[in-house]
Design brief:
about 400 residues; alpha/beta; Rossmann fold; seven-stranded mixed beta sheet; six-stranded parallel beta sheet; 13 helices; about 40% helix
Amino acid sequence: MFGKVHKTIIYVNFAPYENAGRILDYLLLRFERVILFSFNFHTLSKSQSTSTLAIYENKKIVQTRPLFQTPAPPNLAFILLPIRSLVIFLQIIWHSLYLKGKFGTIDEYFTVNAFTAWTGNILRSLGLVKKTRFWIWDYYPPVDKNMIVSFMRWLYWKFDDPASRQSDSISFLNRHLKELRQEIGVLPKSDNHPIVEIGTDPVKSTSKNKISKTVQIVFLGVIKKIQGLELFYDAANKIASLYPNTVLHVIGGGPDMEYFKKRSKDCPLKTVFHGYIKDENKVNAIISRCHIGIAPYIPDESNCMYYSDPSKIKRYMNYGLPVITTNVFDFSQEIKKNKVGIVISYTPTSLFYAIKLIIEKYSLYQYNSYLLAKKYSYKKLYEKIFTD
């Protein structure tokens, strides 16, 4: 199915995105041995697992090792970023030396983060891996109200530039990421590296999601204000006036969790905070019982989502959920064009009317969501990352 099956790959990512778009599942299908470095960045819950090194053979975990985690309260996460990054770098180097002794030189190294891509190229220069692949997920505009955040984003680019130039294979999450690097001269205008979006894994039937009296809305992701969850609470009174039995399901943890729990106490609509759930089957079970998925990102020039691809929206579409989002990323146009949901301006009134319109034409939006999910099946998309 996937052409040549390679032996061993090191895959480095940050929780909870290790299997975003089923990328880990794809690697487990393609490689005999997958070595996953999973690092925590945000504190998602008190029960969150520590950073971990996991070794998979023939799709099954055969060994796990805890990785050291630099203690970082949410308010110090960015200030401590250089120290945390150094700890990550040293751990990848140290454990890769052990892995080479155990398995020989690793065939491939794969990551989606500029700093860890730069680290992979160091491993290659040390003879610990043969080939490095960088699937470019991010660009963090060095503009923010917080000067510390702005500086850290500028510093991140100092790793992104060489990682983009020096990795053996690169691919991009969307055209903005590719065009940006061409405009500033990091890559030539004639660059032909592929654009590979976040994939989907659609289920066969969505008929059970019909709306009765209760409207079930889901929000999935790291709980940060910039993700736009606040808009739901701003619109809650309007929504309650027409749909008083609406329930919001919030799946995930993050630095602003307590803030939103306080907002929910004054909200006329019920919120169920499920917290961070590591078990993907449990996450999928909650999503599958809902009717509408929301991703109302704040349209701000410092919002890195302009250069990203919404894994949460692809997750909603797996179950045929119509989606409501803002015009922040490329995929918003696909949603609008294919009538998968509503692209709104960031106002409470817009969110209210989007919910109303979707409910009135629910079967149409639901069916279109499932059709578009089939188009972005991860088993088709990810081949382009590893074809060379």
